[in-house]
Design a protein that fits this description.
- The chain is built from 13 helices and two strands; from the N terminus they run αααααβαααααααβα.
Length: about 350
């Protein structure tokens, strides 16, 4: 049922592209429609990526998963860079990490109830997020005084991004086989040829770029209309939309009793954004301009630290329960309130 609904809603993408580029719709309507259209696009990109990885082996398959699995967030971030919206860039990325750590993991535990999670894999992902958060402090703390986008902070962000990417490649190479074996054994849909997977992937990525351009272009107007800061819209609404299909997949897996896999999806996605997507956006921003600094706000660093710590406490003994899921979701609600109260920088 869910797959049929997602397939049917793929028709939103061409509608949004036509209306966004050739019609004179209100910006709020453009934002809402493009946000809805990104959900099935994120799902079909993930589907095509998994199918392509079946034919390419773990090395190239891992690269495809890392590159295209986060395509919506990456495209949104780079378009925001091009539109000189650094707070939107940083907010959407940190919001993605925190929503995975608290909202998605919490909803999965709520849906799955009592069970066991893989402590080794879970704490590997949490360690990566914690490591990234510590490195983010180097450019972030100086950015709390003066301009957060000054050139010196941009330059400091480059070596930090390179270190994070090296760590990501090393850890992914070590753990990819184990993760993919767990996923494929339970969630295999099978049947796509490599050619079909790559064609679908290419079309969906192009469509995502066009829809994301409508989304980013209407974000400021939408935020003004509803009385929210650009940062809040990016860190909460855009972050959830960019990961919506993957989030839903984790919850559905948990409802089937596969709680360990659901936790793996949520935590590995958080780690991937922290140590792969964020540094990749920083380095790619030098091509798009203006280059982005890792000068996260205090509320963003605090949210990353609290989210990591709370997830670690909840999963300390490798067990899950609905009460623990409630604690994580409540933690996310507190973060959302903090993001709202923080306003613009």
């Amino acid at each position: 049922m869910t797959r049929r609904l997602l397939f049917g809603s793929l028709g939103l993408a061409p509608l949004v592209i036509v209306l966004g580029y050739f019609a004179d719709l209100p910006e709020t309507a453009n934002f809402v429609l493009s946000a809805l259209a990104l959900i099935p696009l994120a799902w079909i990109i993930g589907e095509a990526t998994e199918q392509a990885a079946e034919h390419t082996g773990p090395g190239i398959g891992g690269f495809l998963n890392a590159t295209f699995g986060n395509a919506p967030e990456l495209i949104i971030a780079l378009l925001a860079v091009n539109d000189s919206l650094p707070e939107v860039v940083r907010g959407s990325l940190t919001g993605s990490v925190v929503s995975n750590l608290l909202l998605v993991l919490g909803a999965s535990l709520l849906a799955g109830g009592r069970g066991m999670v893989d402590r080794h894999s879970s704490f590997l992902s949490l360690t990566l997020v914690a490591f990234a958060t510590l490195l983010f402090l180097v450019p972030a703390v100086p950015g709390w005084h003066g301009s957060a986008n000054r050139h010196s902070l941009v330059l400091v962000s480059v070596p930090i991004s390179i270190v994070l990417l090296i760590v990501y490649v090393a850890v992914t190479w070590h753990s990819l086989r184990r993760h993919r074996a767990q996923y494929e054994a339970i969630e295999s849909h099978g049947g796509w040829s490599l050619e079909r997977s790559l064609v679908v992937l290419g079309i969906a990525t192009v469509a995502t770029a066009l829809v994301a351009e409508v989304l980013v272009g209407s974000l400021e107007a939408f935020a003004d209309k509803v009385g929210l800061s650009d940062f809040f819209v990016a860190a909460v609404i855009v972050a959830i939309v960019g990961n919506a299909a993957e989030h839903g997949g984790a919850v559905l897996v948990a409802r089937r009793g596969k709680i360990a896999l659901a936790a793996e999806i949520a935590l590995s996605s958080a780690a991937q954004v922290a140590v792969f997507l964020i540094p990749a956006v920083v380095l790619l921003s030098w091509l798009v301009r203006p280059a982005v600094a890792l000068s996260f706000r205090p509320v963003e660093i605090a949210a990353l630290a609290v989210g990591t710590a709370l997830a670690a406490i909840v999963l300390a003994d490798g067990r899950s329960s609905r009460a623990r899921g409630c604690a994580l979701v409540a933690g996310y609600a507190v973060v959302v309130v903090a993001f709202y109260l923080s306003g613009e920088r």
